[in-house]
Amino acid sequence: MAEITIMTDHRAERSVTFFRKHKLLIMPLVFIAPAFAMFSIFVIYPIIQSIALSFTEWQGIGPKKWVGFNNYRLLLDDPVFWKSLVNNIYWLVFFLLAPVLGLFVALFLNQNVYGIRLVKSLFFFPFVVSQIVVGLVFAWFYDPAFGLLATLLDPLGVSLPPILADENWATFGIIVAGLWPQTAYCMILYLTGLNSVNPEMIEAARLDGAKGWRLLVKIILPQLKAATFIALVVTVIGALRSFDLVAIMTEGGPYNSSNVLAYYMYDNAIFRYRMGYASAIATVLFLIMNVYIVWFLMRLNKNEKGAR
Amino acid sequence: MADVILKNVRKSFGPIDVIKGVDLEAKHGEFVVFVGPSGCGKSTLLRMICGLEKITFGQLLIGNEDMSDVEASERGTAMVFQSYALYPHMTVAENMSFALRMAKTPQSVVEKRVKRAAEILQITHLLDRKPKEMSGGQRQRVAIGRAIVREPKVFLFDEPLSNLDAELRVQMRVELSKLHNEIGATMIYVTHDQVEAMTMADKIVVLRDGVVEQIGSPLDLYMSPDNRFVAGFIGSPQMNFLKAQVVDGTNGEARVSVPDAPDHILRIPLREGAQVAPGQAVTIGIRPEHFLGTPGGAGLKVLVDVVENLGGIAYVYGRTNASQEVILKAESETPPRSGMAVTALVKDDYCHLFDDQGRTLSTSAGAIRTRAAAA
Fold first, then answer.
1. How far is B28 from B241, CA to CA, in rounded Å?
2. Is CATH 1.10.3720.10 correct for A78-197+225-272?
3. Interface of B with A (CB under 8 A)
4. Contacts A–B by Cβ distance under 8 A
5. Is the ipTM here above 0.85?
6. Does 3.40.50.300 match the CATH number of domain B4-230?
7. CA B60, CA B156: separation in Å to the nearest integer?
């Protein structure tokens, strides 16, 4: 009896010291583990799976057939793919208006007057609303027969083509719709940034003779570097993964003129059962996004080092 | 010459009057300190001088020019803020030269002035650093440097030392005084700390609720405060106030008794023109250093609560028989202990006498002596 007691005591003591010794190593791993598991199952594994799928031909059911780079070769000759890629670039370029507009709206709203909180929440409203609703609102807005835009412009003698039904206008019509919530998002980012600017510093700058544009560029904007960075990243990623607005407003039409990579992928996978081909499109989109993500991570890493 | 003159200056925020008619003159080269409790309007007054707040009514002259409605950057003033308000994305040199660059000053002049200011403040080795890489004291110097570089007619300081630790505050206090001697410009300095006011000022302006209570040299305010508020605000530890009653007043002297010790009659010299009537309720003001706690004897008895012994001097916090709280000075080598009763020895002619409105009726021996010495 006595011997056994001594042994268990001895064991308990050893396990405690092992945990204590490596506590700083074990605890972070324990905390990270759930998130890491979820991330692996729902993000990393599907990415690998769809890259693998892009080398096959598959209808969604039945056997997969290995075709090597054939899907990618087909992509190069596909005019719709190229049109979608160009449209994505349009999205990217014009979406960058969102941080600029957001900054100016934020500067305008960053004042202490009666009712400003209500005004702020009204400006933030489009970001809260679902993208589907935004798409519907703008589709009605553009409607050539009953839409608000036509009703407003008609008395002025201006007649626009039916925007979402015109192959030259459709993409831009959707981008404008997308800019609405995106601007609201950037505005919130900048408003938070402006909140943390020391008002005494602005006063000091005023005493130093800086005002208007020069005050904005030389003193205020540098303080908003972090907000600008996040706004840029979010906007670029948002432009590249644009999908819901296209789906709800034009379904890529007319004649694929407003298609984007994300919607074209969906179209191929869901409506044409070309899983392999859709995966190839997804992989290309993924690679394009990676350029920005790598840049983002590098900046983040640098900033964190700077903060230490 | 850069005299700063305020003529009946007022400031209202909507229906609230913050500054209620201030007349003030700061002569060229003077170090003027605005002091008062928080919310008295001293910072607002400073911000009105530099142009960050509009003057609702009245006139501001700087060097004989009406500056009431001139742009903040063109008044020839430079301000040092409590939070230093440095530009975090610029180096020290860029921070200091920003105003000059905004005014499109030639590069050679900018460099020369920054170099000179950095030498005065001994921050030449910090010129390439960013604000976040510096300590509070160093940032403070940069903020002052930023003001010096502009070569303003008037320097304005808004509680510049209140973010520093006690030791550094004392050091910067001395350095600011040195700087003032070296540059010789007019300086206006806002603080709530009466020690800063006493040690640095040529002239102190005591403010309360947007009204000037008294203007004068530090000794003036200390020795002959115009009213009870100034008497209580200037000096540390605070002046003692005791309720008392006039016995009679003759030959420029009031005989006053304290209810705690009715037999003990104090003789306090009166101000010119001041009248007292027998039986009038008054307040006596006595500074702790003229109010000595001694063991035994006749007079005002004080029960000791706490003794603070600073080594060179000891302060006794106690209560009189009528439970009026008082602070006495005592021998530091043989201090009384708490629970003991001591007798308060009063220097009659150093006492101040205030009427029920808080106005000063007396003239203390200290005031007479300092005036004689000045003459």
1. 38
2. yes
3. 50-52, 72-74, 77-79, 81-83, 85-89, 98-99, 102-103, 146, 150
4. 57
5. no
6. yes
7. 15
